[in-house]
């Protein structure tokens, strides 16, 4: 859903359709970190209501952000029931897309549907395809296909978004103007930034981050930035300090809360306690090592020497009582969902 950049919070009151208004409110609540409101509204909605299906991806992401595994299970059960009912190809695809948001959030990329891995969005209506592209970009990130990740995010922005690859405003083929904002556009821009950063294109990464901040932080949309802060090796913090100092504290604090709550969720999801054994940085480094990112690139990302990185990795191996990358993968990247 696209809303005016100048006053996005005024839109929900102007929408005549109640279900659409609630969906818009949920998107704004998520963007500004009001996860309790999303969970409350979701629990009050009826199973037969189509809006419950459409809001499930936000609800399941909220569950991960607050570490609420029982609520996650509630949403997951609902979505699996929709899939099993086989109402229509479109409804099934929507439910699978929402579950994909959950599995990507839990680092279980192997569990996303084949059509998402392949990029075949034909079962989805046009308005749902940007979110599908966002989830596919996240999947490509998880398997180390960073160039493809950038291509998917950038192409989707060019087709559906209000910004082009240069960050300039543009008209949207779905209607509306460059003076509008959307939550999924935020994530696609941040996907571009993350891919550029990993690929060594730091100036491009900084430009994407700055463009996203310029559009979304003035509206208090801190959640997307908080969720990806660790991926930029300090770049996010520096940009916030330089250009949006008022948001530096809120974004970093939200990042810490999100990671802490994610630990609770992750431990229950994987039935392991690894995430409590490793620090935030150790978990990030271990994930990159398992994904076979070159040591030189990881060291550069964290501003340390390759020798120091290897020492940190030995400490990680020691904490988990493993002897190498293959054993480490069993703990860091879940292979199955129990």
Cα-based radius of gyration, to the nearest Å = 19 Å
Could you tell me the strand content as a percent range?
under 5%
**Low-pLDDT residue spans:** 1-16, 164-179, 334-338
Assigned CATH architecture of the largest domain = Alpha Horseshoe
CATH top level assignment of the largest domain:
Mainly Alpha
Major β-sheet strand ordering: 1-2
Subunit organisation of the chains: single chain
First CA to last CA: what distance?
34 Å
How many beta-strand elements?
Answer: 2
Q: Choose one word for the global shape.
A: globular
Helix content: 55-70%
Overall SS class = mainly alpha
Write down the secondary-structure element order: EHHHHHHHHHHEHHHHHHHHHH
Number of domains: 2
Largest sheet: 2 strands, antiparallel
**If you average the pLDDT, what whole number results?**
81
Written overview of the protein:
- This protein has 2 domains: 3-270, Alpha Horseshoe (Serine Threonine Protein Phosphatase 5, Tetratricopeptide repeat); 273-338, Winged helix-like DNA-binding domain superfamily/Winged helix DNA-binding domain (Arc Repressor Mutant, subunit A), CATH 1.10.10.10.
- The chain is globular and about 55 Å long.
- Helix content is 68%, strand content 1%.
- Helix 2 runs antiparallel to helix 3, helix 9 (129-142) packs parallel to helix 11 and helix 12 packs across helix 14 (235-243).
- It has a two-stranded antiparallel ribbon with strand order 1-2.
- With 338 residues, the protein is mostly helical.
- It has helices spanning 11-14, 18-31, 35-44, 50-54, 56-66, 69-85, 89-105, 114-118, 129-142, 146-160, 183-198, 202-216, 223-228, 235-243, 245-270, 274-277, 280-290, 295-302, 306-320, 325-332; strands at 3-4, 180-181.
- The model is unreliable at 1-16, 164-179 and 334-338 (pLDDT under 50).
């Amino acid at each position: 859903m696209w809303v005016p950049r100048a006053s996005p919070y005024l839109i929900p009151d102007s929408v005549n359709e109640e279900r659409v208004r609630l969906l818009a409110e949920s998107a704004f609540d998520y963007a500004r970190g009001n996860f309790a409101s999303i969970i409350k509204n979701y629990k009050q909605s009826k199973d037969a209501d189509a809006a419950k299906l459409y809001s499930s991806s936000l609800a399941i992401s909220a569950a991960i952000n607050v570490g609420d595994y029982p609520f996650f299970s509630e949403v997951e059960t609902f979505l699996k029931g929709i899939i099993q009912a086989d109402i229509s190809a479109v409804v099934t695809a929507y439910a699978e897309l929402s579950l994909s948001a959950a599995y990507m959030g839990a680092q279980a990329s192997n569990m996303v549907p084949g059509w998402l891995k392949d990029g075949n969005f034909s079962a989805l209506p046009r308005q749902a395809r940007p979110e599908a592209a966002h989830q596919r970009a996240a999947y490509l990130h998880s398997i180390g296909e960073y160039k493809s990740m950038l291509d998917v995010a950038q192409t989707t922005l060019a087709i559906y978004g209000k910004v082009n690859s240069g960050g300039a405003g543009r008209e949207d083929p779905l209607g509306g103007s460059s003076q509008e904002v959307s939550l999924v556009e935020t994530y696609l821009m941040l996907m571009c930034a993350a891919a550029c950063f990993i690929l060594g294109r730091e100036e491009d990464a900084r430009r994407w981050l700055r463009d996203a901040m310029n559009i979304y932080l003035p509206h208090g949309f801190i959640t997307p930035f908080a969720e990806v802060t660790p991926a930029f090796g300090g770049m996010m913090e520096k940009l916030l300090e330089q250009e949006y100092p008022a948001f530096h504290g809120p974004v970093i604090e939200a990042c810490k809360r999100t990671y802490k709550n994610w630990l609770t969720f992750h431990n229950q999801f994987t039935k392991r306690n690894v995430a409590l054994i490793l620090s935030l940085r150790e978990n990030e480094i271990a994930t990159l090592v398992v994904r076979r990112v070159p040591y030189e690139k990881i060291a550069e990302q964290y501003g340390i020497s390759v020798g120091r990185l290897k020492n940190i990795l030995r400490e990680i191996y020691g904490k988990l009582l493993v002897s190498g990358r293959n054993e480490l993968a069993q703990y860091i990247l879940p292979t199955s969902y129990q």
